[in-house]
Specification:
The protein has helices at residues 5-33, 38-64, 72-89, 91-116, 121-143, 152-172. With 173 residues, it is mainly α. It has a single domain (5-172), classed as Up-down Bundle (Ferritin).
């Protein structure tokens, strides 16, 4: 099954917004944590990959004439606040945030790949490549003790729900 131009544009809008939000979450975490702890160094590496993802989606949006989400100013503030708040709880909570978000992004990118099929090889290949890196982020966060964060099930569930809401809103707005 392949989707049309309008749906591919919405996918790009959502994916660019998500990568932008990820860069803001990591910026908030690093603002609180600094750059010296092992967790902060891991976050900095993940942030660099997210910045690369965002730049590639920025270029695709521009080249394809897709409008970005009008909610970007909200994702700027909300992403930074989420990152800072989880880092203030502690390094394990910062990793729990990454694990939760990347779990949702893995699911989201998988659904997009099914919808795209072979209808847009460039977008499909980009999403597939980024999905691998997002899963690596999730697995690294879990290995760093994400599940040991205070109230992990509640924290993870709330962040995953927020991620699904952000995806839905960015798809339309």
């Amino acid at each position: 099954m392949s989707v049309g131009d309008k749906e591919r544009a919405a996918m790009l809008r959502v994916d660019q917004a998500g990568e932008y939000g990820a860069t803001r979450i990591y910026a908030g975490q690093l603002a609180v944590m600094g750059q010296r702890s092992p967790e902060a160094r891991a976050i900095a590496r993940m942030a660099a990959q997210e910045e690369r993802h965002r730049a590639i989606f920025d270029a695709m949006i521009a080249r394809r004439g897709v409008r970005p989400t009008a909610l970007q100013p909200l994702w700027n503030v909300a992403g930074f606040a989420l990152g800072a708040a989880t880092a203030l709880i502690g390094p394990k909570a910062a990793m729990a945030c990454t694990a939760a978000i990347e779990s949702e992004i893995d699911r989201h990118y998988g659904e997009q790949l099914e919808q795209i099929g072979d209808g847009d090889p460039e977008l499909g290949a980009t999403i597939a490549e980024f999905r691998v890196e997002e899963v690596e982020h999730r697995d690294a966060a879990l290995a760093a003790g994400a599940e040991l964060a205070p109230a992990y099930p509640l924290l993870s569930g709330a962040i995953r729900l927020g991620c699904r809401i952000a995806i839905g809103l960015s798809h339309r707005i």
